[in-house]
Amino acid sequence: MPRLARAGALVMSAAGAVALIGARAVGPASHAVLPVIVEYHIPTPGAFPHDPAVDPMGRVWYTDQANSRIGRLDPETGAFTDQPTPSPKAGPHGIIAAPDGTIWYTGNSNGTIGHLDPETGTIREYRLPATMPDPHTPLLVGQYLWFTVQRGNVIGRLDTSTGEVKTIRVPTPRAHPYGLVLAPDSTMWVALFGTNKLAHLVPPDGALTEVDLPNAAARPRRLVVDDSGKVWYSDYGRGYLGSYEPRTRRFQEWRTPTEHGAPYGIAVGPDGRIWFDEVASGSIVAFDRTTHAMEAVKIPTAGSIVRNVAVDKARGRIWLAESGVERLGRIDVPGTR
User: Fold this and answer.
1) What secondary structure, in 3-state letters, does 77-129 show?
2) 289-331: per-residue pLDDT in tens?
């Protein structure tokens, strides 16, 4: 059963105030109201939050990869609960909240997919074929759970009604499929982190086409698709934010505020801007798609790496999993509620 942990404390400054860090503008004029980051300390010793997800009730779920636990924060009370995965060394990585309120995650260390029912606390594990040793990023579309497999160099599809698993092989060797997102046209895009390519996946069978990025040194890690169908990706290797317009096949890119900034987790925020983590500076950067202005928001706790983010559009929030510092972060995006 889930374990009730003490309420996670908001990170406090020496004066006792909540640690709120404001933003700095980079480039053209930015938004007048500056966002801040509020942190919640996870009480489980050695917690390593990898990915976050928000359920329909606004609760924040996260994978604690180091402790092989699935955790939950209730933002209204600040209380944390968590529970172990059935396999003690599953190393949970990606996580999503389904429309029905249940939780799916990838067991990155033992080749499993997990399905958690919050009402009962039970977790069902699906054992994957040996060719899928490290499931990574999950995506639920109807009855199918799609997921990337880095070392296996494949995309997987789990039929949640039958347990059947389908394999879609990536043509380029050692492409390391990483980020995975759904587009408005119900197709999917994949970041091939081991090379300078994206992949376009068409369900239900998973027909796959690779798209070369213009620079051979590009290494796309995470990606997101906006409401127009444009693909945005974090070029971790070169320190750029990139975009690709599938209809015109046009690429654009912008250097991140810090040289070799190592952009990582990325999302379309409630305000329509592109938000991404800049590992090198310990900041979250907001990019205006119209003016191309960037606004950097410093993460309060040094050493944080945000590998993935989750957007709560209904409440105007962005949630961060701060790996390495045992924290979750919350941004209340100005003007979105």
Assistant:
1) CCEEEEEECCCCCCCEEEEEECCCCCEEEEECCCCEEEEECCCCCCEEEEECC
2) 999 999 999 999 999 999 999 999 999 999 999 999 999 999 9
Spatial distance between the Cα atoms of 297 and 23, rounded to a whole number of angstroms = 4
Distances in whole angstroms, Cα of residue 335 to Cα of each of 35, 59, 91, 94, 100: 10, 21, 37, 30, 29
Distance CA 71, CA 40 (A): 13
Distance CA 302, CA 284 (A): 13
Report CA torsion sign: 327, 59, 287, 293. negative
Task: Encode burial over 136-148: b for 16+ CB neighbours within 10 A, e otherwise.
Answer: bbbbbeeebbbbb
> For 299, which DSSP code?
-
How far is CA 153 from each of CA 96, 172, 192, 275, 295, rounded to the nearest angstrom? 22, 8, 9, 28, 35
For the stretch 28-80, pLDDT in tens is 444 546 789 999 999 999 999 999 999 999 999 999 999 999 999 999 999 99
Quickly count: other Cβ atoms within 10 Å of residue 30's Cβ: 19
Backbone φ, ψ for residue 20 (5° rounding):
-120, 125
HSE-up (13 A, CA, CB side) for residue 56: 6
Provide the whole-model pTM: 0.91
